Amino acid sequence: MAEFYDVIIVGAGPAxxxxxxxxxxxxxxxxxxxxxxxxxxxxxxxxIVNYPGIEKIDGTELTEKMRAQAQSxxxxxxxAKVTDFDFSGDMRIVKTDKGDFKTLGIVLALGANPRxxxxxxxxxxxxxxxxxxxxxxxxxxxxxxVFVIGGGFAAAEExxxxxxxxxxVTIIVREEDFTCAASVADKAKNHxxxxxxxxxxxxEAAGDRLLQSARFRDNQTGREWxxxxxxxxxxxxxxxxxxxxxxxxxxxxxxxxxxxYLITDHNQMTGxxxxxxxxxxxxxxxxQVVTAVSDGAVAATxxxxxxxxxxxxxxxxxxxxxxxxxxxxxx
Length: 331
Prior knowledge:
The chain is an alpha/beta fold. Helices cover 22% and strands 26% of the residues. The protein contains 6 helices and 17 strands. Strands 1, 2, 3, 4, 5, 6 and 17 form a 7-stranded mixed beta sheet that branches.
């Protein structure tokens, strides 16, 4: 028989962890399911400097604190890949590769994945020279040349980060200029180890076991040019082209926008009562840690009344409050 939880949260990034803190603190039996690692995409960020009240912290440390806080309130965590949902009936079913779980309420904090550009060789050399996370993979390219593809905030910021390791960083920007704030772009433009090519795109990456060459096109003139790695060396290509929402599993079950993002109301509820979305997977104007944790808190607190109503409807006996660490009440 599937184990029963009041709330199941799918995804353990900042949105899911925030939802877990609020739901568990409300004395619900909470399970957080994560397919890979606790923390989500933010764990690849080496430095967070815009989270209110915290001057500087890395993504792993911040989310580890969130996880510990959620566990102190009684939330349970399990590494498992969700394979399907059954949203019919009051008792929903979450199907995973570790078995099925029953629940009254669900928070979908599914997140988003790096977008691939589709240039020749990108898929073949992914993990063998083509990368999407400077913090994860930058060190592998110590003393080598590195190309950064993109003109947004992430491309400019991560290009500067990569100068810690790379001999030289070349940024390939498709537009006439960077599309992020000047304060961020200027750090890249003025860095002594960075060169920028505008109105340019990558056409192909090639090599043997590792990358050996890359071909680029100047869209203004139509001229193509090739970079060849020095003899006996390889090089790196880091792609920063935004993200794709991880909503494939709910297509046809929940309403998505034209880009695949989950549509929710102001309480973070989807079109199905008791099923909520939170974080980068949702339609929103700003995808930052601070908005992700806000989404999680709103979703969890909105779920409180829904779960209580279902308990009453199904004549379920209230659970005994879970033992938890003594915490001071919030103001």
